[in-house]
Amino acid sequence: SYISVLEALKHAAAHQDLGAPTTANWAKVRRVGDEVHAVGRATSGDDIVVALRSGDGTWTSEILTPSSSPANFSYDATVPGGGGRYLTFCTPATSCGDLNAGVFDGGTWTIDTVDTVGEVGALSQIADVAGGLQIFYADTTNHDLRRARRSSSGTWTTERMGTDEPHRIVLRRAPDGTPWLFVTAGSGASQTHTLYRFASGSWEGFALTPSRRWPDLAGSVDIAFHMGQVWVGYYVSSGYLGNLDRQLFTGSGFTSSYVSSDDFPDFSGMYHFTIDAQGRFWYVCSPGLLEFLGT
Fold it and tell me: Residue 210 and residue 228: Cα distance in Å, rounded?
């Protein structure tokens, strides 16, 4: 029978520092097969650090040097073993006006400038969708949702996708390779939450109704996948994971169950999470630590 990952977490001994090989203020953590990938900014200077933990626990890391101070990362990887890997970030960190992408093709990393028109770097997500890179991002100058696509020659084109400025964008890949996109727009009673699944060459949207009303000023939102379920979590503005919704996709929509975090170990400042192939819950928490929960 299915045993909830969260039930296992209630009995976890402690949360543990992973001891990644390079010191960084970690910003994102992702599951890729039996690997765990993390990205962040070096604790000294403006370098970007990308770390990979293999299934046997061995760490490797790489250093990228952007044109100026980076911030607001997103990350995606298509296959284990360090093949296709992609990230976005804004520059400069003080204003986040420009959107940039890092692309690793299995040999070397390249850094591209994607969009510089308006304030476009603050909120973005990247994924390899049907063999082509796509970035979904917020244009905070024109209050739009935009998409950038990269051609086989490495050229980026951008387009407007929506007229409501998104407040949160999450783009993740399920273990079967299916990309999922989460977008929150609006505020108060008019706030909407939509999960999009990429299938048969197009994005299909499903409205998501949380078990509890999401705070207008909620912090980061993340999604992960485990045993056929889609997990959606967020922390409230006071800086902890206040609520966790377990979303089960039924073929035509989602059913939701609310789980309180009160009985779990300290989630203070938990920003992003993933669930690995063994059902362990990995997360990035304040101040830039990479940790996991499990027995």
Answer: 19
Do 128 and 88 contact (CB within 8 A), yes or no? no
Order of all β-strands in the sheet with 132-139: 124-129, 132-139, 144-150, 156-162
Cα dihedral: 294, 84, 27, 150 (round 10) = -140
- Enter the tokens of residue 200: 């048969």
Kindly state the tokens that stand for 105: 């093709």
Contacts (Cβ under 8 Å, ≥6 apart) of 155: none
What's this model's pTM, rounded to 2 decimal places?
Answer: 0.74
Question: What's the pLDDT tens digit per position in 147-166?
Answer: 999 998 899 999 988 767 77
Q: Helix, strand or coil for residue 188?
A: helix
Strands (DSSP E) found in 208-293: 221-226, 229-236, 240-249, 254-260, 272-275, 281-285, 289-293
Name the residue among 101, 102, 40 with its Cα closest to residue 71: 40
> What are the φ and ψ backbone dihedral angles of 91, each rounded to 5 degrees?
-140, 150
Name the residue with tokens 């994102």. Answer: 28
Where do runs of H (alpha helix) occur along the chain? 5-10
Give the tens place of pLDDT for each residue, 82-110.
668 899 999 999 888 999 999 997 788 99
Q: What are phi and psi of 10, to 5 degrees?
A: -60, -25
